[in-house]
Q: What sequence folds into this?
């Protein structure tokens, strides 16, 4: 952390200033990964987000509150570019993700999209993680709709049908009801531990004589065993650098990791423990509630945005994309049968960060559609669309367009907001020229 940022956060800890978006983005002196244009955008984004959410919103969201001392939205600190513990593209990736939040909201404000005032009032009065994530999904879908030239309405009136986003192209309308799936308590400990292990291993990879780690991350370890594992992996990294030979490390639970010399090859990855839990029942129960809520909509799509409820620690998450399409289709068949007004189900997840980004994947099966898309700079989104068979194909194609073209909307949005050159113009080092081993981080 740059000294200017350290000084700002020490002042926050002493109660001399509130937590604000300027501190959250970080001082321009410490943002060596940004171009001058990127630093200007950070300042603009900080100012605009303060206006949208309200001046004290971020301070309330991140300050410990109540007898337990928990933050209202604890994940916000993890998204801050200042607090990113990863080397390139860690801070740059966190910054671009924040720009994506800002651009989607600011685009809707600039164009005075119908319903944006209602969305803004809701997030100001309900400072919770569920409302925050819900707002980000609404804004992204609406911004994607604008990118596709659609007419967009947020929080449409009751006579149109209850819900979150209405997308219209001429006579074609797709009404979308959104809900988010957050990480369950049984996943939280394992998720945090895997993040800790992954960050440690990626930190070891940098320096002279590049090395990379691959294999299975350990299951949860006691403090003593974890410290022993830290020492063993650190020593193995040093040996690999010296000898240029692979070195294997075996955790107490039998899981094996290997450190190898050189740059990471495409497809190499670190794999975390899968925590077995029937999340399908949880998803199905929520889908039924949303289906009942939208009965008056005429036809409605239900969009489930996953933030750790399904990915990354379930067997479903390890299936190939085609397998996920069929599995989700089987799961939601009951909902589509019981609620004829439901046009289809969408499940979307952006829990993985990878650099460089993997190749795109697109599949169209009789049961539905699947898309894997790399988003600038290091985010990977996976989206599954299960439409009602042979019904409303125009609506299905509309949502397919949104998912298929998502990687390109941010450059367009930046231009709409008066920033030329797209994402690459914001970075001091173009992503294509950056030297980095592959990163894979679950659920960040």
A:
């Amino acid at each position: 952390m740059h000294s200017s940022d350290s000084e700002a956060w020490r002042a926050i800890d002493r109660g001399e200033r509130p937590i604000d978006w300027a501190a959250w983005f970080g001082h321009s002196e410490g943002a060596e990964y940004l171009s001058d244009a990127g630093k200007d955008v950070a300042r603009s984004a900080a100012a605009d987000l303060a206006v949208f959410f309200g001046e004290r919103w971020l301070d309330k969201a991140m300050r410990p509150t109540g007898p337990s001392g928990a933050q209202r939205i604890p994940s916000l600190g993890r998204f801050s570019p200042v607090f990113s513990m990863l080397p390139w593209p860690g801070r740059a990736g966190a910054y671009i993700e924040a720009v994506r939040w800002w651009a989607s909201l600011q685009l809707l404000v600039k164009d005075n999209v119908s319903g944006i005032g209602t969305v803004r009032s809701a997030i100001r009065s309900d400072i919770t993680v569920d409302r925050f994530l819900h707002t980000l999904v609404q804004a992204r879908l609406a911004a994607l709709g604008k990118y596709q030239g659609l007419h967009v309405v947020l929080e449409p009136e009751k006579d149109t049908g209850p819900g979150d986003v209405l997308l219209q192209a001429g006579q074609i309308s797709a009404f979308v009801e959104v809900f988010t799936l957050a990480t369950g308590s049984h996943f939280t400990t394992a998720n945090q531990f895997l993040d800790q292990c992954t960050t440690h291993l990626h930190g070891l990879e940098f320096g002279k004589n590049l090395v990379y780690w691959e294999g299975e991350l350990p299951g949860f370890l006691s403090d003593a065993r974890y410290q022993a594992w830290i020492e063993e992996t650190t020593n193995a990294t040093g040996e690999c650098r010296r000898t240029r030979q692979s070195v294997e490390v075996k955790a107490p639970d039998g899981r094996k990791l290997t450190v190898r010399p050189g740059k990471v090859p495409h497809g190499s990855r670190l794999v975390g423990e899968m925590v077995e839990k029937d999340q399908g029942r949880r998803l199905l129960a929520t889908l039924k509630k949303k289906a009942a809520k939208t009965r008056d909509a005429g036809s409605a799509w239900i969009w489930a945005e996953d933030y750790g409820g399904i990915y990354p620690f379930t067997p479903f998450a390890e299936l190939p994309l085609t397998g996920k399409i069929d599995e989700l289709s089987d799961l939601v068949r009951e909902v589509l049968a019981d609620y004829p007004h439901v046009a289809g189900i969408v499940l979307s997840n952006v829990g993985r960060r990878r650099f460089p980004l993997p190749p795109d994947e697109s599949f169209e099966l009789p049961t539905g559609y699947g898309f894997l898309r790399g988003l600038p700079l290091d985010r990977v989104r996976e989206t599954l669309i299960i439409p009602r068979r042979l019904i409303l194909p125009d609506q299905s194609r509309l949502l397919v367009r949104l998912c298929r073209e998502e990687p390109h909307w941010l450059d367009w949005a930046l231009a709409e907001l008066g920033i030329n050159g797209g994402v690459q113009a914001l970075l001091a080092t173009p992503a294509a020229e950056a030297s980095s081993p592959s990163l894979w981080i679950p659920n960040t």
Notes: The mean pLDDT is 87.
